[in-house]
Structure formats: C-alpha cells, structure tokens
Specification:
Chain lengths: 115, 109
C-alpha cells in the first residue's frame, strides 16, 4: 500500500544521545514535512522540504536537523536529545506543483521519550 | 498564513449532522481552507479543502461564506468513529501547513 512509513514507531532514548527518525514515502511527492505533537496540543512544524535538495525551518526547528538527498526520504535528526524533545513526531508529504493544491498525507507517527 | 479560530470542543449525537465552524477573517485571496482530523493518536487525515465555492466529497461538505471570512465543515451523519480533533487551516500552496489547536468533536450514542 502506497504511503508514508516512519521508523521507529516508538523509542526511549537517554538524554545527550543522537537519534534519527526515518521517513520514507513512495508517492513521489515533492514536499515533505516533520511535525511534533505534545500532549494536548496541536501539531507544530519543525522542518520542511519543498523539493529534493532543499529544506526550510518551521515553527520549532531548534535542536533538530533534516536532509533531503532524494525525493523519497526525509530523515529528522536530534543531535543531542533533551527531555523537552519527548513528543510524538509525524512525517507528512504533499504533491506540490501547477494545478495541485497540496493536501498533506501523514505517517502514523514516532513516539520518542527522552529520559 | 492567516490564523483561524475554532471552538475548543463540540458534542454531536450519533446520526445527526455535525457542523464545525471556523473563523478566518484575515484570509488572503489565494489562500485555501483545509480541514483535517486526527483520531486519537493517529496521524492527521485530510478531509476536504476549498477556495471559495462550496465543496462536497464522500467524507464531508465544506461551506465557505461569500466573504470567505468563515467556513463550516459538515459531517452529514456523524458516527462514533467521527470522534476526533478537527483542524481548520488556511494556506496558500505551497506554503507550510500550520495547525492550530482544533475542535474536539465528541459523538455520543
């Protein structure tokens, strides 16, 4: 089934450790996004990429980095995890281009706990 | 992106229509209105979007006022499975999609 795959689905991590959340889509969408969602709150945009080779900062980019080497993959890296990065992380993709109005398709999330 | 205002929560009886309002008084001419929902802790799900005309699909209807300053998402026959947080977002593609806190819809038997 086509869609977005996130890994891992859940992870417990010691503070100070490096962690990469993986996101892969097979829909050939141009744009990809990373959001975090904290308990009781809406989603906040961390980083995005409108096309392979480009990235941009969202609302809450500090402490995170991304890369977009190809169309399908958009990993999110926490260089040195801190407890405030405990959250559920959602990856999304979107077809963008002439005539496309860019609805987003989301993965099922990665639950990260930093101790 | 224009900001949106939604009520924090609403209730609806099963089988009745659920009408979820959204105010977006500062919407720009090229911004679309999008609706998403999030069931429990799943990833958000796209529902519908529109620019200025009313729209309908298999999930819902979207009514946008003539001045485009507000809209209503209508779930014509709500079921228990429609219990979720519903997000109204305005955006001009390919701009970023910025979520607010949404409306928590509780459908009761």
């Amino acid at each position: 089934i086509a869609g977005i795959t996130q890994a891992p689905t859940s992870q417990i991590l010691a503070a100070g450790r490096r962690m990469t959340l993986r996101c892969t889509q097979d829909m050939r969408h141009n744009a990809m996004y990373w959001y975090r969602q904290d308990l009781g709150l809406g989603l906040r945009l961390i980083h995005y990429s409108n096309t392979a080779g480009t990235t941009g900062k969202g609302e809450v980019p500090d402490g995170y980095s991304v890369s977009r080497a190809n169309t399908d993959d958009f990993p999110l890296t926490l260089a040195s995890a801190v407890p405030s990065q405990t959250s559920v992380y959602f990856c999304a993709s979107s077809p963008v281009g002439t005539g496309r109005t860019g609805e987003l398709f989301f993965g099922e999330g990665s639950r990260l706990t930093v101790l | 992106d224009a900001k949106t205002t939604q009520p924090p929560s609403m209730d609806c009886a099963e089988g009745r229509a659920a009408n979820l309002p959204c105010n977006h008084s500062t919407i720009s001419g090229n911004e679309y209105v999008y609706w998403y929902r999030q069931i429990h802790s799943q990833g958000p799900q796209y529902i519908i979007h529109g620019l200025k005309n009313n729209e309908t699909n298999e999930m819902a209807s979207l009514i946008i006022t003539e001045d485009r300053k507000s809209s209503t998402l209508i779930l014509p026959h709500a079921t228990l499975r429609d219990t979720a947080v519903y997000y109204c977002i305005v955006r001009a593609p390919p701009d970023k999609l910025i979520f607010g806190t949404g409306t928590r819809l509780q459908v009761f038997p």
